[in-house]
Amino acid sequence: MILRAAWVLPISGPPIRDGAVKVIGDRITEVGTLDQVTPDEETIADVGRVILTPGLVNPHTHLELTCYAGRLEPAPFWSWIWQLVKLRAAPGQVQREQEGVREGAWQSLRAGVTCVGDISRRNLHWHVLKPIPIRKVCFVELLTLADDPPRNPAELETEAACVQEDPLLTVGLTPHAPYTVPLRQIQATIALATKRQRPWCTHWAETREECEFLRGHTDALDSFLRSLLAASGIRSPRMAPFAYLAKCVGGAPPGALAHCNYLEPGDAERLAAAGHVVMYCPRSHRFFGHEPHPYRTLLQAGVTVALGTDSAASNENLSLLEELRYLRRETPEPPPDQTLLRMVTLDAARALGLQQHIGSLEVGKQADLAAFPCPRDTADPAALLVETAPLPSGVWVAGRRLL
Ligand SMILES: [Zn+2]
Description:
By secondary structure, the chain is of the alpha/beta class.
C-alpha cells in the first residue's frame, strides 16, 4: 500500500511536499516524494489531500479516570485528589473505570493518538485494552499505602506476570511516587523493570508540598495523608528530590518521570546526565494551578521532554494536538512547531522505550500513522497542525487502518 500525501512529516527529517509512505504488512518500507517511492502493483490508497504524520504517542495517562471527565473543577492537586478518591469509592468502581479505559482508548484514537502509556491503579486496564487495536504500554502501579494490590514488590511482580503481552501490548512498571512508596520498594520496582527489560515510569516533584516532605519538612503534607504514610512505614528520606531520585535509580537504566514541576538549580543538568525523559502534561498542569513548568530549562539542558495529557479527570480531553495548541497560543515563548510535534511523537516514544519502533516515519519502523486534512494553500503543515489541532481523517496502527 502506498499512502500519498500533500505533506509527509517524518519528524526524523524535514517535511516532504507531495510525499508518500509505502507500507508492507505492519512496516514502513519507503518514505519520500511520490516520484521517489517505487511504484509497483501495490495500489495508491486514496486518502484525500492530507498531512501524514507518525501516529501520536501519549506517554502519560490514566485512562480508567476517563469516566470522571468533567466531574471535578480545576483546583490545587491536594483538594482534587481527595475528591477523586471519594468519586472512585462509589459503588460499581471496577465496571465504571473499565468502561473509562475503553472510552479513553477510542477517544485517543479519534484524536490521532496511536500509542498510550497507561497507568492503572489495580491493573484493571490491560485486558480491556488488549482487544482494542491501539498500541499500549500498560504500566502496573505499586502504591504502598493502598487498600488493594499491588502494595509491595511481590504483589507487583505477580500482577505484572498476569499481563498477556502481544505485538501491540507491552507491560511497564511504575512505583507511584516518592512520597507514597518507600526507597526499597522503588528500587525493587526499577530492578524488576530492568530484569524484564521493560520500561518504568513514576511521578516525581509534582507538588511543592511533596518536595518539602522529601526534604524533611513532613508537615507540608496534610495530616490525613501523613497518618496514612506513617501507617505504611513511609518516612521522609530527608533529601533533595532529585538527589533522592539518583539514590532510587542507582545504576539502573533511565526511566520516564511525570511532571517534574518543581526544580532547583542544577536539577535539569542532573536529569540530562542521567538520561531520564520528563513527561510534561500542559493542560493538566494548568488545571492544578501549578507555577509555570520549567520545560524550556529542561530542553536547554538537553533533557528529552515528552508531552502527555495525564487523565481526563484533570483535563478537557485526551488530544495531544490540543496540548500543542494550548502551549503555542497561551504560554510565552513556545518552542518551534517541529519541536512541539517531536514532543508528542518521537520523544514520547522514547519515554516508553519504543523509539526504535514508532514515533517517526522511517524505513523499518511500525506503520503507525495519522492523516490530517490539508487545505490547498498549506505552506507550513507543522504550523497548521499545532495552530488548529484538527481531527484526523485516517489512523493506522501496525499498517491496519482503524478510522
Ligand atoms: Zn499521572
